[in-house]
Design a protein that fits this description.
Helices cover about 35% and strands about 15% of the residues. The protein has an eight-stranded mixed sheet with strand order 7-8-10-9-12-13-14-15, sandwiched between helices. It binds zinc ion (ZN). Its cofactor is Zn(2+).
Length: about 500
């Protein structure tokens, strides 16, 4: 029920032309007097939290019916102000025919109310603001102008239209503001962080499941974390297979969209976070505030709070950590942490997709990491061209770039590149660089990958599974990855 500012202005200029030439029709010199009474009803509606529309029925200079808009409070779609006022007047007269009466209403009547007005055989209806979206007295249709329908009711538009429209616009502005305040109160934005406009992210590029936001875990310290979860709020039966998917920077959670949809369709639970500093999660303004240590602690909290470990379910129920590209360092670290914490290995799987490995970075990948850190206004999409982008949906790539509207939003991006560089430079054998992949792990590699071409993975002690596709396999060849995923359902663990 939005009011356009030009809509009621137009009706104001034409509406006051008299349409009441018939002397049998009651006419009052001062329609504004009765419209003020209708506006009082509209104010009462606003105070009750209803869209402010009010109406009165007048006969022989006396108000015999009053009504305010109450569809929400009465759980009644017909409880518009006009209907309420007509009912009140009809009770007063003991007659459904309201002959000789005039209805004053603050907003142009809708089709339902226009029908009721015609059925009541009102002599006259006077309204204030035009309703460009639903008005049935000229704005959308004009039921009063149809000679086959209307033999009785004269109309006058635009009486105190500005007052009525101001009530409505004030009401909607207040409600929007209250909603924004409530949204911020649920996840208030820290002074030292930024949040990207939601409009940047189109739903078509999102993973399966609901968008969930968390900010009250101690590790988050008030930063808002965005997670896509196919089983949000306990919806659906408990899934035996749980997939925690970790996208490489700068891709948000949508990188795993086709794979996540296919696995969720099989009843699995698929959880994909946006890293702090990327996607829809909050972005600290300073690089130093984002680190692998923070990401890892957030992942641990995620596993715990979302109860991703299938403790009470029979084998082969398990949590599979699926990490893409240079998120592999965090996938591996999380797997080790959970194992150290005593999670049985039979309850976990590790899946590395085009993994980034220590001491094997290609020059193109190194150049990407350096550019991200050195160039504040780097065109992300252009810089990504050095990876194999074949077959990626354009909307996804556009979104990867759009999530960095300015330098201030890039702290998470820079911090990621800083820590990724430290990982690929790390000496083999050091605590962080040691691969030593567990038996329950699988490595999938795109045949045409350029940043992480499969021959560099010769260092692995497990044979990678090759499939057509480049560096962004989850979007480029989800079908092949779906076949690889079967490894975790069928392989006996331990
Ligand atoms: Zn209505």
């Amino acid at each position: 029920m939005a009011i356009s500012s030009d809509g009621h202005g137009a009706s104001l200029s034409t509406g006051l032309q008299s349409m009441t030439a018939d002397p049998s029709i009651p006419h009052f010199e001062d329609d504004t007097h009765w419209m003020r009474a209708a506006l009082q009803q509209a104010q009462a509606a606003a105070q009750a939290g209803e869209v402010p529309v009010g109406a009165v029925v007048v006969r022989d200079g006396v108000i015999i019916g009053r009504g305010c808009n109450q569809p929400v409070g009465l759980h009644d779609p017909s409880a518009h102000a006009e209907i309420q006022a007509l009912r009140d007047a009809a009770q007063h007269l003991g007659n459904y025919r309201l002959e000789g009466c005039t209805l004053y209403v603050t907003l142009e009547p809708c089709a339902m109310c226009a029908g009721a007005i015609l059925n009541a055989r009102l002599a006259r209806v006077v309204w204030g603001a035009a309703e460009p979206r639903t008005g049935a007295a000229g704005s959308v249709v004009n039921l009063f102008a149809n000679a086959q329908l209307n033999h009785h009711t004269q109309t006058t538009a635009g009486v105190l239209a500005e007052d009525a429209a101001a009530l409505l616009t004030g009401f909607f502005a207040g409600r929007r503001q209250a909603q924004q305040v409530a949204a911020r109160a649920a996840h208030p934005l820290r002074d030292d962080a930024l949040r990207v406009d939601e409009k940047i992210f189109s739903a078509g590029c999102d993973c399966a499941g609901s968008s969930c936001f968390y900010s009250n875990w101690p590790v988050l310290a008030g930063l808002r974390l965005h997670v896509k979860d196919s089983h949000a709020n306990g919806s659906g039966a408990p899934a035996a297979m749980r997939w925690l998917m970790l996208p490489a920077s700068p891709a948000p959670q949508g990188l795993f969209r086709p794979l996540a949809q296919a696995l969720a369709a099989e009843g699995d639970r698929v959880v994909v976070p946006d890293w702090i500093g990327l996607g829809r999660s909050d972005r600290p303004k300073k690089d130093a505030a984002v680190s692998d240590a923070l990401h890892l602690a957030v992942l641990q909290a995620l596993v715990e709070h979302l109860q991703l470990l299938p403790d009470a379910l029979p084998a082969p129920a398990k949590l599979v950590i699926a990490a893409h590209g240079d998120a592999s360092r965090l996938g591996l670290a999380l797997y080790r942490l959970l194992a150290q914490a005593g999670v049985p290995l039979a309850r976990m799987g590790l899946w590395l997709i085009n993994p980034a490995l220590p001491r094997h970075a290609t020059p193109a990948y190194r150049q990407w990491l350096e550019q991200v850190q050195r160039k504040p206004a780097l065109d992300v999409v252009q810089a990504l061209q050095s990876s194999a982008l074949d077959g990626l949906p354009g909307a996804d790539i556009a979104q990867w770039q759009a999530q960095f509207p300015d330098k201030g939003h890039r702290a998470g991006l820079r911090a990621w590149a800083r820590d990724a560089q430290a990982w690929v430079d790390a000496e083999a054998g050091s605590m962080n660089a040691s691969l030593d992949l567990p038996d329950a792990s699988l490595v999938s590699v795109g045949e045409s990958a350029q940043w992480w071409p499969w021959p560099t993975l010769a260092a692995l002690d497990t044979a990678p599974r090759l499939c057509p596709g480049g560096d962004w396999l989850p979007l480029q060849n989800p079908q092949a990855l779906l076949e690889h995923a079967a490894f975790f359902r069928s392989t006996p663990q331990q």
